[in-house]
Amino acid sequence: MVVKIRLARFGKKHAPFYNIVVAHARTARNSKPLEVLGTYDPIPKSPPPNDPHARPWKDIKLDRSRAKYWLGVGAQPSDPAWRLLSMIGLLEPKYRPSMVGGKVEKRSLIYGT
């Protein structure tokens, strides 16, 4: 059976919060996972007021050793999970061709910022 690394949504309406989980591919999104690897809070946190150059950030907490283990045994990350794992440095970012004027220009990173 295929095992996936994906996001399970928790939180309230208009205030999402995600668990980064390892689950069988055919189970429901919020069913009991095989393992919870970490959390992702997509709502930007405000920077400290005394630092004018600081930018808002999104909180990602992940057990890197367990994520490496699951990737090593063949777990396939979903696209949002791939984006998060590439931001952390566990995976290479996916590339996609950029379409400009109907022609493929150069490849651009998929970060979804």
UniProtKB/TrEMBL annotation:
The keyword Ribosomal protein applies. One of its GO terms (molecular function) is structural constituent of ribosome. Belongs to the bacterial ribosomal protein bS16 family. GO terms for biological process: mitochondrial translation. Residues 36-57 are annotated as: Disordered. The lineage of its organism: Eukaryota, Fungi, Dikarya, Ascomycota, Pezizomycotina. GO terms for cellular component: mitochondrial small ribosomal subunit. Keywords: Ribonucleoprotein, Ribosomal protein. It comes from Patellaria atrata CBS 101060. This is Ribosomal protein S16.
